[in-house]
Design goal:
The structure is a single chain. This protein has 15 helices and 22 strands. It is of the alpha+beta class. The strands form 6 sheets. The chain has a 7-stranded mixed beta sheet, with helices on both faces. A 5-stranded mixed beta sheet has the order 3-2-1-6-12. A hairpin with a 3-residue loop joins strand 1 and strand 2. Helix 1 crosses helix 4.
């Protein structure tokens, strides 16, 4: 299973690594300013509903693993009942805590931005939300707890916490962060428990089925794409956000990027990350009248680059600028602009942001090729081609391209001995369904645009920028729930 930002997906794969069945269930996010919360019990409700669709009575199940959005977490009591809404990775309210941690902790590979889990923990602690907490569970661990009754934390998720590197540094504890509520991290393939009788009754899973600790969604995506070791290439996963991931030797550091543990020993994943890429496309659908379920199949103008320039930072930004207050903009509007123009601008704006991220990584590590496209964005008829043209590199869509859930099933298979190691499942992710080749003329034109778009972003930012002025002068709006 994968506990995503907009919904949960569950898949069954056979012992050849092939997809057998899948199901998805959506749930909302409550947004208010820099806040982004979810009801953790909605994850379990989605899990039970999805599993009921794909698990067949009497069918043997070798093992289960759960990946998830991260760092997204919830405090629970001794019975595993949530004590507060879950803070999602997109919640950036812990700005004061982030600044305090920056002053208290030595520089590390990951910063102290409120995106990271350490600032979130401190934010909760200062507001008394953890007084009665037995544990703080990350999203995948919450579902694992409902399946097994056992608390857990996997190493890939732990590395989303500033100051963690095989354990938390003393200055983190000295800063008052209650990291003991997270517990000790285990490898992603550690079997932490088995499906209880109650969980079996709720899901249809066989009682006693082994459950692995699991991982962040980027690990699942890397397994789906066959990215195990340095030199295997790069993948980009587009769901609510866009994250690129590249296997690198453990300990690699690229300033401004995100560094997490892979499930493969001795390997890290280097991540670049936007915030609201897929959510931007959903927004286009909402404001233009596209059918939300079919927007990725909608036609966009064949003449490219398009007539609009769009900044995609509708919910702040992560790499490389780390600006929670960043917001979007559209330039070039006129009375001939159509809904298709706006959708194309969303594709192009997010692809240009991805190009800037990958260029920053390539400048340090050299070019990472090939590029695999995963997640919901890879299902579009046009978006992968736009990415190929903008990036100037071939984009392949793997046969197993769900974004993380398929990789979670592969992880479960390795954890329970279906396969001897991850190398045995790598060919599954390297089978290609479709390949998109770049157009050299379009690539050159997009290159001319990139600098201008980045200049616009920088012009709007800062204490005297238009974005800040709008934030200070706009009338308040009540919180809303979004899918």
């Amino acid at each position: 299973m994968d506990v995503g930002t907009t919904g949960l997906k569950a898949v069954v794969v056979d012992d050849g690594g092939r997809l057998v069945r899948d199901a998805a269930v959506r749930y909302p996010t409550a947004l208010a300013g820099l806040g982004a919360e979810q009801d953790a019990t909605a994850w379990w409700s989605a899990a039970t509903a999805a599993l009921r669709r794909i698990v067949r009575p009497g069918e043997p199940v070798a093992g289960i693993a759960v990946t998830s959005q991260g760092p997204t977490m919830v405090p629970v009591d001794a019975a595993g009942t949530p004590l507060a809404p879950a803070l999602t990775w997109a919640d950036r309210r812990a700005t004061a805590e982030s600044a305090d941690l920056a002053a208290a902790l030595p520089p590390g590979r990951n910063g102290t931005d409120p995106y990271f889990g350490t600032a979130k923990l401190l934010w909760w602690s200062r507001r008394g939300a953890l007084t009665d907490a037995h544990a703080v569970l990350c999203a995948n661990a919450f579902v694992v707890r409902r399946l097994t009754g056992m608390d857990s934390l996997d190493e890939s998720t732990a590395s989303f916490f500033t100051g963690w590197d095989s354990g938390f540094a003393d200055p983190v504890r000295a800063a008052g962060v209650p990291v003991e509520l997270l517990g000790d991290a285990v490898t992603c393939t550690t079997v932490v428990g088995t499906v209880t009788a109650d969980a079996a009754a709720a899901t249809g899973l066989p009682a006693g089925t082994p459950v692995a600790a699991g991982a962040i969604d980027a690990v699942g995506a890397a397994l789906e794409a066959g990215l195990l070791t340095p030199g295997d290439g790069v993948a980009e996963m587009t769901g609510f956000s866009t994250v690129s991931l590249r296997p690198v030797p453990r300990g690699t550091h690229v300033p401004g990027m995100i560094h997490v543990r892979h499930c493969v020993p001795g390997t890290d994943l280097l991540l670049t990350a936007q915030v609201s890429t897929g959510a931007l496309v959903d927004w286009v659908a909402r404001v233009t009248g596209y059918d939300a379920a079919d927007v990725l199949d909608a036609e966009v103008p064949a003449e490219r680059p398009g007539r609009l320039a769009l900044l995609p930072s509708l919910l702040g930004e992560r790499t490389p600028v780390w600006d929670p207050g960043a917001r979007g903009a559209i330039v070039g509007l006129d009375l001939d602009v159509t809904a298709g123009d706006l959708l194309l601008a969303a594709y192009e704006g997010t692809a240009l942001a991805l190009r800037a991220d990958l260029a920053a990584v390539d400048a340090v590590l050299g070019a990472g090729r090939p590029l695999a496209a995963l997640g919901g964005g890879a299902r579009s008829r046009h978006w992968p081609q736009v990415k190929a043209d903008v990036l100037g590199r071939e984009v392949r869509v793997p046969v197993a391209g769900h974004g993380a859930a398929h990789g979670a099933a592969l992880l479960a298979g390795v954890a329970t001995g279906v396969w001897p190691d991850f190398a045995a499942v790598a060919p599954t992710g390297r089978r290609t369904a479709t390949t998109f080749a770049p157009d050299p003329d379009r690539h050159a034109a997009y290159g001319e645009r990139l600098g201008a778009v980045q200049a616009l972003r920088d012009h709007l930012a800062g204490p005297t920028g238009l974005t800040d002025i709008l934030r200070r002068t706009a009338a308040p709006r009540p919180p809303r729930r979004t899918r």
